[in-house]
Amino acid sequence: MNxxxxxxxxxxxxxxxxxxxxxxxxxxxxxxxxxSVSVIQDPCTTEVIARVAKGNQxxxxxxxxxxxxxxxxxxxxxxxxxxxxxxxLADALERNFDTIAEIESLDVGKAIVNTKGFDIxxxxxxIRYFADLATALPADTPLAIKNMEAKIHRVxxxxxxxxxxxxxxxxxxxxxxxPALAAGNTVVIKPxxxxxxxTLFVAKLAQEAGFPKGVINVVTGSGSVIGSxxxxxxxxxxMSFTGSSEVGKQIGExxxxxxxxxxxxxxxxGAAIVFEDADLDLAAEQLSAAITFNTGQVxxxxxxxxxxxxxxxxxxxxxxxxxxxVKIGHGLAADTGMGPMASEKQLNxxxxxxETGKAxxxxxxxxxxxxxxxxxxxxxxxxxxxxxxxxxxxCFKEEIFGPSAYLTTFKDEEExxxxxxxxxxxxxNSVFSEDLDKxxxxxxRMICGNNWINAHNVFAYGLPYGGVNLSGxxxxxxxxxxxxxxxxxxxxxxxx
Length: 496
Ligand code: NAD
Fold this sequence. Notes:
Layout: H1 3-6, H2 11-18, E1 23-25, E2 28-30, E3 37-41, E4 48-53, H3 57-76, H4 79-95, H5 97-108, H6 112-136, E5 140-145, E6 148-156, E7 159-163, H7 169-182, E8 186-190, H8 197-208, E9 216-218, H9 223-230, E10 236-242, H10 245-258, E11 262-265, E12 270-274, H11 280-292, E13 302-308, H12 312-325, H13 344-359, E14 363-366, E15 370-371, E16 381-382, E17 385-388, H14 394-397, E18 404-410, H15 413-420, E19 425-426, E20 428-432, H16 436-445, E21 450-453, E22 468-469, E23 472-473, H17 480-485, E24 487-495
Parallel strand pairs: 7-8, 7-10, 8-9, 10-11, 12-13, 12-20, 13-18, 17-18, 20-21
Antiparallel strand pairs: 1-2, 3-4, 5-6, 6-24, 11-23, 14-17, 15-16, 19-22
The structure holds nicotinamide-adenine-dinucleotide.
């Protein structure tokens, strides 16, 4: 019996993994060259779990053409009819809840307690939220201008391209494409090569839910071939990229040259300010959870812990106890709190950062070590780590993307804010204090897309989520603004 069988992978999940996977174009599965495949591993064991045929330039062209042709009918449907398709997709995800949760856990290495408790249901909520929003929000706005009948008339763009990273493939897919679809656009998706499985499963369910041909297309393959061709294709009218700041700059450039409007959801290096009057148990709970959730491979996690000097020792003691208590194991095991890194490459990146950080003088309060949980001896596991030192250290300044935090101390509010703003990321920060006036004041002053009080990782539909500076531009996700972002405004006016 292999490790997966021991984990009781369901028959439905196994059947999907064993099926002939590739790109999804015009409601058909496409495998242009069965020899050219991405081999998908379970990062907990390194066992091969699936083989996904890569698309090529022709696959991409066919996908964009299919989306272009489908746009005419899809965009002309009343919003309420598109909402029916979207709700059917949400129903299908609910019916296949266990399967999609297993696929996502297995592909990324995520703890199943998190996929079942957060990723999958929150993604379903996204579909229902935008389906309902699109039926309720007016596309047109009348303008009160003297001697004129005038309005803003909003129409969908056409083919929207999406490029996604490997860390939250299912959630980011839905956060991205659902508002675009609800607004009447058609989509071409390039998932990460490392973790394409839940995207392909969603495409399969969309087909079963009756989505018309060409409305949803997925092209598998590398960023350099498929991703870069997508963001400069002349029939793509809107682009959205989620991923690293470095690649985001390249995509922004490519879209600029092709004059394709583009939004960028990029990396982060979140800060958490812990004041001496904070509830330290709460802060320790929230911040230990932040760096172990999805094994710290979370763009908005808080990895810079900026703690007031007088409580640094007490906070450290509490948070280290919490980090040591996290149960590390196979993502599909029900009692696992933290799975492995998603890939060997990411594991080595984290280890290299810790080594460099320590060589630069950081103290390892809790050192990150490679682990080999029983049954997962070859997997990419490591324990959480906490370094401390001053804010010039590389581990304070750069995104590490692992279960690792860096603690530094401050004397007063101004010094804490100066440390927050000493680097240019601006995705998500938090402030912990029982003095709510102070907490609100500090939250207002932090230059960042999302600032949370006495919590870290706060998400809700209706609460816009996006980044500034190195963390992105162009709108964010999860709110009515996101929906309007996929509608192009034009004016209609008649002099009276
Ligand atoms: P990445 O930038 O390396 O890759 C992201 C995607 O871009 C992949 O699909 C990749 O194939 C593709 N790509 C790579 N080069 C390309 C090119 N030249 N042209 C077009 N596409 C290209 O990022 P990653 O390692 O997959 O993901 C981790 C990063 O994503 C982290 O920095 C993380 O913070 C960020 N992220 C941000 C958010 C957010 O909402 N702001 C969410 C999740 C992840």
